TrEMBL record:
Record keywords: Oxidoreductase
Species classification: Bacteria, Bacillati, Actinomycetota, Actinomycetes, Kitasatosporales
The species this protein was found in: Streptomyces griseoruber
Residues in Flavin reductase like domain copies: 22-166
Family matches, as Pfam families: Flavin_Reduct
One record GO biological process: pyrimidine nucleobase catabolic process
Protein's name in the database: Flavin reductase
Record flagged with keyword RNA-binding: no
UniProt cross-references to PANTHER family, sorted A to Z: FLAVIN REDUCTASE, FMN REDUCTASE (NADH) RUTF
């Protein structure tokens, strides 16, 4: 049985409507990192998208009010880390305002191009930023893949209904 949309309950566009709809959209969880003038910066992102295979390119969104935006706005390279279901606390740390994101227990090292690379992730990439496109109160960052490693063990961490979760079999 299929249900037709109830057009009588539709709402006009608003930030709340967009958030309510996207709470129903399950998304993979990534952490974006970059070198910063005062040390490394990073944030949790669910807006990661593959853009192009040739050249290999991806995109992610970042709010211009985010604490990491000043560094991301100047970074030539960024790190992209796909998190596993065992990394809910790491995802929460990088999502929390004011958190010491690179202090213990976060395990990381300086990687190529000075990009912070997180340990124990499902996969990671170092990418060269090619564009920052204005999009409302965010910027869409387009980045070309330079190198990476897809060989981490585990299953992906997801974000759905306002919380981190895992795949079900």
């Amino acid at each position: 049985m299929t249900a037709s949309p109830d057009l009588g309950t539709s709402r006009l566009a608003s930030p709340d409507l967009l958030r309510s709809v996207f709470r129903r959209h399950a998304a993979g969880v990534a952490v974006i990192t970059a070198p910063g003038a005062s040390g490394p910066v990073g944030f949790t992102a669910t807006s990661l998208t593959s853009v192009s295979a040739e050249p290999p390119m991806l995109s992610f969104g970042v709010g211009t009010g985010a604490s990491s935006w000043p560094a991301i706005s100047r970074a030539e390279h960024v790190g992209v880390h796909l998190l596993g279901e065992h990394q809910q606390e790491l995802a929460a740390t990088f999502a929390r305002s004011g958190a010491d994101r690179f202090g213990a227990p976060t395990a990381w090292r300086e990687g190529p191009e000075g990009v912070p690379v997180l340990d124990d992730v499902l996969a990671w990439l170092v990418c060269r930023v090619v564009a920052r496109v204005p999009a409302g109160d965010h910027r869409i960052v387009l980045a070309e893949v330079v190198l990476g490693d897809p060989a981490g063990a585990g299953r992906p961490l997801l974000y759905h209904q306002g919380r981190f979760t895992a795949l079900r079999d």
